[in-house]
Amino acid sequence: xxxxxxxxxxxxxxxxxxxxxxxxxxxxxxxxxxxxxxxxxxxxxxxxxxxxxxxxxxxxxxxxxxxxxxxxxxxxxxxxxxxxxxxxxxxxxxxxx
Length: 97
Fold this sequence. Notes:
Layout: H1 2-51, H2 55-68, H3 73-96
Helix pairs in contact: 1-2, 1-3
């Protein structure tokens, strides 16, 4: 009986996690495109700084470009969305089991 009550209590949380995860996945895909464009522009700025003889600024721009590249902030956001999706899957497994 207690397990049934816990499942009923967990259902709204599972629903909310499913909806929130779907919204975050959509936002992640849109932001990945935006950050890819920003990363390319910042990289071009770094190349221009290297050509003009400003190596410190070029290195700083390269660091910022890496932060906005698909290996930086979008990868971290994808990892966090994956954790959230895993938590929702565990909760749905508890309800179904």
